Amino acid sequence: MAELNESSNKRLNSFIYDQQTKNLHSRLLRYMKAGYPIHLTGPTGTGKTSLALSLAKKRRRPVMLMHGNHELDNQDLIGGFTGYKSEKVIDHFVRSVYKKDESVSEEWKDGRLLEAVKHGYTLIYDEFTRSKATTNNIFLSILEEGVLPLYGSKETEPFYRVHPEFSVIFTSNPEEYAGVYKTQDALLDRLITIFVENKTTKQEASILSHKLGLNDRDANTITELISRLRKHSSGEHSAPTLRSSLMIGKIAIEEDIEIDGEDREFQQLCIDLLRAPMSRLLESDHPITTAKELIIQECKNIGN
Ligand SMILES: Nc1ncnc2c1ncn2[C@@H]1O[C@H](COP(=O)(O)OP(=O)(O)OP(=O)(O)O)[C@@H](O)[C@H]1O
Which end of the chain is more exposed for a tag (fewer CB within 10 A), N or C? Predict the structure, then answer.
C-alpha cells in the first residue's frame, strides 16, 4: 500500500500528460500564441480547469483566475470608486505660523479584468456561463477591438488598450442547467471551443497512479469501479467523476484501507463517497437504496 508524504502531496497537484493530452496541449498553445481565446467545455470533472491552469503556466505570464457568478458585474471587472481619500498636511514649521492643507479625492480600484488586461496576464475565466450574458458582453470589445471600455471611470480616454500578452481561457459545463445563462452567439463565435471529454478508464488509472503513487492493480480497481457505475447513470451525465476516484484513492492510502472490491471497509468508503452522486443519476423510485446496492454489487464485480 502506498503512503502519502510531502512529495506525494506535490504530485497530487501535478498535471499528468498522456499522448492525447500532450497533443491537445500543444495545439491549444499554438492557437493562444496566434492570439485566439480558448473555450474548454465539457462535463464536470473532465479536467477543464486543470488543463486551463497548465496551459496558463506554460505561457509564463502571471495568471489570474476568475469564477463566473450571477453577481459579477462591470464594477468587479473594470473597477470602481471605493470611497474617498483625504489628505491633511499641517505645516507648523514656524511657531507663529500654522498652515493646514486638506484635500479630498475619490479613490478608484481597478477591477480584475482591467488589471489582467493592463498587465498582460493570462486570465482563466472558469464557469463563465454562470455570469450574466450582459456582464460577459465586455469581452466582445476586448476580443474584437482589443480595447476594454472603462464604464464609470473618469479617465480622459473611455477605454484601455489591451496588453499584447493578454490572453484568456474560458471554461464551461454544457450539462449544467441550474444557475447558468445562455451565452450570446457573438461571444461564442470569437472563441475556439474545444470539447474536453471524459477520459478513458486507462487514462484515469494512469492519473491515479501518478498522482497518488498507487500501483497499477489498485489504480485499475478504483477506475474499473467508477467506470462500471457510470454505465448505470441515466442520460448524458457522467458522474461519478475522476474527482471521486482520486478521493477514494487518497483516503484509502491515508487510512490504510485495502483497495479491494471484496473488502468491507473499502465498500463502505465507496458507499460514503459515491452514493450521493450516484443517487442523483439513477432512474429509480428509491435512488438512495438502489445506489448503495449497485455500489456493493459493482465492488464485487471488479475484475470479472
Ligand atoms: N490530466 C490531468 N492530470 C492530473 N489531474 C487531473 C487531470 N485531469 C483532471 N485531473 C484531476 O481531476 C479532478 C477534476 O479536474 P478539474 O477540476 O480540472 O475538472 P473540471 O472539468 O474543471 O471540473 P468542473 O467542471 O467540476 O469544475 C481534479 O482533481 C484534477 O486535479
Answer: C
Q: How far is CA 192 from CA 164, 214, 293, in A?
A: 18, 36, 43
- Pocket probe mutation, ligand 1, options 18, 50, 242, max atoms within 8 Å of Cβ: 50
Interval 82-93: pLDDT, tens: 767 677 777 766
Pairing status of strand 159-161 against strand 167-172: unpaired
Q: What sign results for the dihedral spanned by CA atoms 10, 198, 133, 31?
A: positive
Atom of ligand 1 nearest to the CA of 18: 1
Measuring from atom 28 of ligand 1, which residue has the nearest CA? 243
Q: By C-alpha distance, which of 144, 146, 163, 135 is closest to 78?
A: 135
Average pLDDT, integer, range 55-81: 91
At 296 the pLDDT is 97
CATH class of 35-77+111-195: alpha beta
Asked if residues 64 and 92 have their Cβ atoms less than 8 Å apart, the reply is: no
Task: Tell me which range, 47-56, 106-115, 167-176, is most confidently predicted by mean pLDDT.
Answer: 47-56
Q: What are phi and psi of 169, to 5 degrees?
A: -120, 120
Ligand 1 contacts (CB < 6 A) are 15-16, 21, 44-50, 173, 207, 211, 242-243, 246
Pocket test for ligand 1, best of 49, 169, 204, 251 (most atoms within 8 A of CB): 49
State the DSSP code for 192: E
User: In terms of Cα–Cα distance, which of 70, 20, 25, 11 is closest to 169?
Assistant: 25
The phi, psi pair for 82, rounded to 5°, reads: -100, -5
Of 22, 25, 56, 50, residue with least CA distance to 242? 50
- Residue 38 phi, psi dihedral angles, 5° rounding: -105, 145
Residue among 152, 166, 66, 146 at smallest CA distance from 109: 152
pTM: 0.86
